[in-house]
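Good morning N.,

You mentioned wanting to compare the apo and holo forms, so I went ahead and generated the holo version with heme C. This is what I fed in:
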Amino acid sequence: MNINGVGRVLVSLIGCMALHLAWVTPGFSGQKVNWEAINPELKGAVSVGKSDDCATCHSDSIEAFEKTLHAKAYRSLYNKEGGSSCEVCHGPLSKHLNASPEDSDRKLSTVVSFKNLSSQNKNRICLQCHEKGTKMHWRGSAHEMNGVGCSDCHYVMEKRSNKFMFAFKDSKKVCFQCHQDKRAKMYRSAHMPLREGKMSCSSCHNPHGGLGPSMLKESSVNGTCYTCHQEKRGPLVWEHAPVRENCSTCHDSHGSIHASMLKRKVPYLCQECHSASQHPSTLYDGRNVGGSASQSNRLLGKGCLNCHSQIHGSNHPSGARLTR
Ligand code: HEC
Ligand code: HEC
Ligand code: HEC
Ligand code: HEC
Ligand code: HEC
Ligand code: HEC
Ligand code: HEC
Ligand code: HEC
Ligand code: HEC
Ligand code: HEC
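and this is what came out, ligand included:
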């Protein structure tokens, strides 16, 4: 490669890095908060610039906050602009600083406290910087619509988890606060390795909302499953129609008492759809029970799967009946 070529590569590399940084570093990319609208007492208040003065009364909070990722990020991002890092979430605090130390009611009314905010206003404060990336579909998501807030899952005033500033050390506990039934299912005999810690709810879901059903990470159930179970994607010569359509027709992703997380036991599962009057259903409707050897064979063991073992589809030239 000649010098010119190297130069061009370097220039484009630097360009890419700058773009990348702009994308991954959430500055004030979203809508700025109108503090006065959230708390009318803040009318006329201005930024005090630094948090040194807060330490007299809030040293515990400051000490805890200093260990969080935000504190680190803010030091490099905002302190040089002069804003106090506390003020990005608690509003401009000149009035709060000037209020009499004895008047704690006045102190409390001249600051944005999260204790008495609507979840919408709480979220607004975070969305100033976090509206992009995985939070793109937050607005209108089932969580947003049902009043769930960023701070139900995240805790920003002290470091409680190693990643993602969760409100609890264990990310699953974050979800089980509200989705108790999923906790029970996780402890059923057939499950994906969640309780072993190899997966989490967010392996399949984007709790901030997504384009697909049930806030899944991909736009469909199957698309989500294929990210790990690629072999089920195909292409297959002989397809089994319901598999292409929706894995959840037969599987309960959260856990089941039936093998392979099936929603029902085989053959009942199969008979939900295959109730034609010939081969399959006649096996179980009583009339032919105890008939020929091959028929009773069909009643034993895993039933249908003994013969139709390629239940997700087949690539064998003569696999049309999913038997090989
Ligand atoms: C002279 C003491 C004093 C100083 C200095 C002070 N505060 Fe406060 N702050 C208070 C008092 C008193 C309250 C009300 C406490 C209460 O009732 O919980 C309060 C409340 C708050 C709250 C709301 C807490 C809650 O319960 O939700 C925040 C946030 C806050 N202060 C941040 C700051 C920041 C940031 C600074 C520096 C810019 C600062 N304070 C400076 C005394 C002080
Ligand atoms: C990223 C946003 C954010 C920043 C930055 C921030 N806070 Fe907070 N603060 C919160 C939230 C959210 C709560 C409510 C926590 C809860 O109880 O869920 C809170 C609560 C508080 C409280 C009430 C007591 C408590 O711990 O719950 C105090 C006091 C406080 N903050 C002071 C500060 C000070 C001082 C700074 C600057 C060093 C600061 N905050 C920076 C978001 C922030
Ligand atoms: C229902 C729980 C829940 C709510 C509500 C929630 N989050 Fe999260 N958040 C998570 C989980 C779980 C992860 C980790 C995702 C992963 O494993 O990839 C996360 C990750 C993040 C991350 C870091 C990684 C990324 O995806 O960018 C940021 C930033 C974040 N959340 C901000 C927010 C903000 C801002 C809000 C409110 C608008 C919010 N979260 C609401 C659960 C939640
Ligand atoms: C002033 C801008 C700003 C505000 C406001 C803000 N954040 Fe952040 N947040 C950042 C920056 C910068 C980072 C660190 C950069 C990064 O790695 O994403 C970050 C990182 C995070 C992370 C990711 C932690 C990780 O381990 O990856 C979470 C979660 C998060 N913020 C949640 C919140 C929540 C909840 C609020 C509201 C209470 C909030 N943020 C308010 C700027 C902000
Ligand atoms: C503060 C309570 C709360 C927490 C915490 C919470 N959720 Fe939810 N979640 C809800 C509510 C309320 C709904 C909407 C009603 C419903 O479907 O039950 C919901 C709905 C959902 C849905 C269905 C979405 C749809 O479009 O039908 C999924 C998926 C979900 N939550 C996943 C999670 C995951 C994953 C976590 C943990 C990261 C989590 N939730 C944490 C309250 C919560
Ligand atoms: C292997 C992928 C996968 C994992 C891991 C997963 N889910 Fe789901 N979840 C799904 C699929 C697919 C659906 C939608 C269709 C269905 O119900 O089967 C769904 C639906 C949901 C719903 C809405 C419908 C309902 O059943 O209430 C909630 C709430 C939910 N999941 C919560 C969770 C929680 C909490 C966790 C973590 C304990 C979790 N999920 C882990 C795949 C998953
Ligand atoms: C993040 C990766 C991941 C995703 C996404 C995922 N799985 Fe899995 N799944 C696994 C792992 C890992 C196992 C355990 C494999 C093993 O033990 O060999 C597993 C096992 C299974 C099993 C067998 C369970 C048993 O008890 O034998 C079924 C069925 C299954 N997954 C269905 C699904 C469905 C349906 C989806 C989509 C809703 C899905 N998976 C999405 C990783 C994933
Ligand atoms: C028509 C019902 C049905 C549908 C739909 C279905 N499966 Fe299955 N699946 C089964 C049955 C039955 C078994 C048990 C097979 C056995 O025991 O031999 C199984 C087993 C599995 C297993 C564990 C054994 C293996 O083959 O690795 C995984 C993983 C799995 N399915 C993933 C999926 C995925 C991903 C989808 C969607 C693309 C899906 N399944 C759709 C019926 C179905
Ligand atoms: C949700 C409905 C549904 C369920 C559940 C279901 N199937 Fe199917 N199955 C279909 C459909 C639809 C076809 C395609 C029929 C066609 O093309 O005429 C099919 C095709 C088949 C075929 C190939 C037949 C042919 O004519 O090509 C076999 C074999 C089969 N299924 C066996 C099973 C077994 C075994 C189970 C249980 C593990 C099962 N199916 C569960 C809907 C279902
Ligand atoms: C002993 C092996 C065996 C068992 C057990 C068995 N099948 Fe079959 N099945 C076959 C064979 C072989 C064919 C192909 C017949 C043909 O081509 O005429 C077939 C054909 C089918 C077809 C294609 C449509 C039809 O009627 O020809 C369906 C659907 C089907 N089986 C479903 C099932 C279901 C559901 C079960 C369990 C209730 C089951 N089978 C159990 C061997 C078996």
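Residues 240-242, 249-250, 266, 269-270, 272-274, 304, 308, 311, 320-322 surround heme C (ligand 9) (CB under 6 Å).

Happy to go through it together on a call whenever suits you.

Best,
F.
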